[in-house]
Amino acid sequence: MRFLPLVFVALAAAAFFVFPYDLAFLTRILIMIVLVLSVDLILGYAGVPTLGQAAMYGAGAYAAGLFAIHVWADPVAGLIIGGLAGAALAFVSGLIVMRTHGLTAIMLTIAVAQICLEIANRARDITGGAEGLRGIRMEPVLGLFAFDFIGQTGYWYALIVVCVVFAALAVIGRAPFGMSLRGIHESRDRMLAIGAPVYWRLVLAYTLGGAVAGIGGALAAQITQLVSLETLSFTLSAEALIMLILGGTGRLYGAVIGTVLFMTVHHLAAANDPFNWLFVIGGMVLAMVFFLPSGLISLGHALKGGRK
Amino acid sequence: MTMKLTTTVAFAAGMIAAQAGADTIKVGVIAPFSGPFAIYGTLYQNAIDVYQAQHGTSAGGHDIEFIYKDVGGPNPDQSRSLAQELLIKDKVDYLAGFTFTPNALAVAPAIEQTQTPTVIFNAATSAINAQSDYYLRTSYTLWQVSAPLADWAYDQGIKTAITTVTDYGPGIDAENAFKAAFEAKGGTVLESLRMPLSTTDFTPFLQRVKDRAPEAVFTFLPGGPPTFTYTKTYNENGLRDAGIKFLGTAETEESNLQGLGDMAIGLTTAYHYSAAHDSQMNRDFLAKLEELHPGAVANWASVGAYDGVHLIYHMVEVAGADGPKAVESALGLEWESPRGPLKMDPETRTVVQNVYLREVARNAETGLLENAETGVIATVGDLGWGK
């Protein structure tokens, strides 16, 4: 297990050389991993169900896009702005959402994303509305690596961001804060009884998740040079959740594996049969839920016959 | 993964072969083939099939191959990455399709950089073509049909109107076009109502229209369910009886028309194509379509694609895979289409075409509803260019 992170990075680096014509697609997987990781922090660690993570992702994307157009086109600065925007939105909405549980919380997360979507749609002069925010031209990363058409810089840039986010979440997960989130997930009452400030811990977790999603959105804005209303859509939130469930919740590797699996199958199925590919996706999700309810990450465990 | 690897290897081999002299020109078609907008993908594909059945699969000694990519719906991110994939991996020489404006706009940097002629089969906002010289549009723009309709209405003695449009890009384009043309003539737009995209009940909007009692109501709605509900409400709330004339554009298009039923009879629209267009070429087109895809409908998206393919064939014949030369050869090109005569306007790169005034009527022979053309009200290019 110690070397698992290295294996993943090595695989990602190998993918760069094996699929030189698919970098745009591989980069989209990396961006999606950041979003799914943020869902994992909120749902997998803290146990708060969410179907509105796209709100923070979109906020980060629009913030980074607008920042690049009007203020400064430096990619790293843009990531920080995107992260801050995601965190700010998550904090404000989290103050309300975290007062509720279960279905109510889900409804509220959906509502927040829908409100953001409608605001972005209405504020046409700022966001470009349905036509999307265009005209994002990024400066080279760290002033050294210019974004190229084939997407080589974009790929490495996204990969590094994924690694940093992953490492940060791994540290948080092992820190007392992460432990207390797991505690809240297991039993909220017990955590309350031992005096943990459950509400504020959850708000903080939600804010952190928002920051990560915002970074993902910023990454998407910088690499595709475009922000559309889709970044705030319900579909995106739902797909992120499906990817996480496919991979396995509560484990960072689950988020990575689920995203890679879902997007690869999606891509291959849609490329081979652009008309009926949705059947393949549906079938895969059904099969997974029936046979591996804890996600792909539990495959080894299940094969040994030790299903929970 | 192995499959992926095989494709990559096959592709690499293919590239070497291509350089050795084998000659296939590839056209990437980005359109929705799944989900609620899948009808567009089907319409394009049917039209391409018809064109190929009529004219073969090669032009000027080059074989032409179409590669279809599913973009799902209005999704510019996806559109952009599909374009990148087509250009880098599949090495396509032309791009085509594009149902939604944001999807078309999203590929502008990519086609500019790779000098790839891109033929828009549908997306109808004027702003698109200004983003790159490589856009060519064989559909129409909202200005192109809405402004002549406003002129015509004024000439018919209609002096006051209310516009009701769906609140998104194309709707606002239509509103601006109608308003500008109508007011330029001397008419008055009493009010401009914008209805949210997700509206399912139009009663409040139409009640308001009825209360203000204009002589006509101009509308722009996305195809499908909103049109049913809107026309139903228009009739049931007594707007028709009150003599408020319905003025529309694509609302009565062929794929939804039969579903509208008798309540659609008499609706007035201005548009560039009706499947009932009276010409030999249109009849041939429809006959071939029926032969290849029995029961398929033809509407404006079909002719957008059909003429788009014609344009691509022409460009391939003249210029092969040379993008700038291909676009050059397309400018000013005139040809006959199932919708009537067309000319590619060299300035706006949108076709100059007839705008017909139509009224929904029941065809005496087939018993089906159709958009009966009552005349040409204008022959214009993109009137929204630079606005």
TrEMBL record, chain A:
CDD domains: TM_PBP1_LivM_like. It is a multi-pass membrane protein. It is found in: Cell membrane. It holds the Pfam family BPD_transp_2. It comes from the Bacteria. Keywords: Cell membrane, Membrane, Transmembrane, Transmembrane helix. The chain crosses the membrane at residues 25-48, 79-98, 105-123, 155-177, 198-220, 277-299. InterPro entries: ABC_transp_permease (IPR001851), LivM-like (IPR043428). The keyword Transmembrane applies. GO terms for molecular function: branched-chain amino acid transmembrane transporter activity. One of its GO terms (cellular component) is plasma membrane. This is High-affinity branched-chain amino acid transport system permease protein LivH. It comes from Pseudoprimorskyibacter insulae.
Automatic annotation (TrEMBL), chain B:
Residues 1-22 form the signal peptide. InterPro entries: BCAA_transport, Leu-bd, Peripla_BP_I. Pfam families: Peripla_BP_6. Residues 24-361 form the Leucine-binding protein domain. Keywords: Amino-acid transport, Signal, Transport. CDD domains: PBP1_RPA0985_benzoate-like. GO terms for biological process: amino acid transport. The keyword Membrane does not apply. Belongs to the leucine-binding protein family. PANTHER family: LEUCINE-SPECIFIC-BINDING PROTEIN, PERIPLASMIC BINDING PROTEIN OF ABC TRANSPORTER FOR NATURAL AMINO ACIDS. This is Leu/Ile/Val-binding protein. It comes from Pseudoprimorskyibacter insulae. The lineage of its organism: Bacteria, Pseudomonadati, Pseudomonadota, Alphaproteobacteria, Rhodobacterales.
